[in-house]
Model the fold of this input.
Amino acid sequence: MVNTTDIYVPENDLERSLIKCIWRMNEFNSHERLETILPKGNAEIIFNLTETTLFFTLNTENINPLPRCVINGVNSIPVNLIKHGHQLFLGLQLNVFVLKFLFNVPVKEFNDRVIDGSLICKSLEPLFYQIASTSAFNDQVNYILKWFNRKIAAVKHKTEITRVSRFYFDNEIITMKVNNICRKYNYSERHLRRLAVEWLGMNTEAFILYHKYLNALNLLHYANLSLTEIGFYAEYYDQSHFIREFRSFTGMTPKEYRKTMSGLPGHIYTQPLTCPNYTIL
Done:
């Protein structure tokens, strides 16, 4: 059987400001394998339609079954998936501030966690069954968009999210000092820090460092750039600073990542499976 991937890209301005994409991955492989997902700066609601996947992170001693509906927030450490046989996932990839918008829960509460979505939002379980009732990707996308639009029609914070999204999409942020950002947006440092923690999952300084790392991660996939050039373009002080910060998020150096990276930024595949001696619950 052939592995397939389907992607829906938002079509209108409102969707594009909140949703990065809706994706479906249909994977067939009889061998057990390990997929390491590095921090990628996204929030996701993922529907696990095969329920045969296990996961573990570096901050846990146990391997756990992946819930059938997952909410995953901002990761600062890798997440590892153990896969075997047929795998079918459908994901709603969001800009991180949308978690607060949808669920009225501070984004920091989702950091570095793989959360059973049914514990956060009761309407996700019937949505899972709707998605599972059809194999047509277009129908699955329509079910998700109808659920999403119902949720955002009922939420508060519409004025505040406009301000947060302006900050989030400002590409100049990673080159600025916090006091300059405050002047640009007419915020006190305390107010900006509160907004960042509540809506982006981290304080302003951490947000800047995180997005420097994300820039470097994507630049590593351009083979014509040296590691020195990548460190420069990603706004690091020097090569040692680049290496140190990259390792803090991934557990490896940029050189080690480039040797093991796949065609999909932030995803590393290992076969046959090699992972720590964890306990499966």
Q: What stands out?
A: The first strand starts at residue 4 and ends at 8. Residues 276-281 have pLDDT under 50 and may be disordered.
